[in-house]
Amino acid sequence: MTSLPPQEVRLLKASRVVEIVWENGTHSRYAFSMLRKSCLCSECKSMAGRAEQIIPQCGTGAIVTKILPVGNYALQLCFDDGHDRGIYPFAYLQKLETSPAHD
């Protein structure tokens, strides 16, 4: 697992995925809905805590509208539901890619 910036990040709206090409040439694909449900921002974590550690129910139709780099360690994802506080470190994205909940 690495925290180095990827070679390329692609926003594939028609497929509803974010595709990342890592520095070693491997590709990872993340469904918009999974990324929205996996947000680590304090608001989402607080909502999850109040719901007895259940991830907040976000619309499965959430669309990533913009991807912004955060230094050399993460991406900020902006969604069409107005949510734009989530920072996704590269190491976290790689962990999500290998998790059983990845869709």
Contiguous uncertain segments of 5+ residues? 52-56
State the CATH topology: NE0471 N-terminal domain-like
Count of discrete domains = 1
- Estimate what percentage of residues fall within beta strands: 25-35%
The average pLDDT is: 84
Helix/strand order, N-terminal first: EEEHHEEEH
Strands ordered across the widest β-sheet? 1-2-3
The helicity comes to 10-25%
Question: Helix- and strand-based class?
Answer: alpha+beta
The count of strands amounts to 6
Q: What does the main sheet amount to?
A: 3 strands, antiparallel
The gyration radius over C-alpha positions equals 13 Å
Per CATH, the architecture is: 2-Layer Sandwich
Cα distance spanning the termini: 20 Å
Q: Name the shape in a single word.
A: globular
CATH class, please? Alpha Beta
Work out the helix count: 3
How would you sum up this structure in a few lines?
This protein has one domain (about 10-95): NE0471 N-terminal domain-like, CATH 3.30.2020.30. The protein starts with 7 loop residues before the first strand and ends in a 6-residue tail after the last helix. By secondary structure, it is α+β, with helices and mostly antiparallel strands.
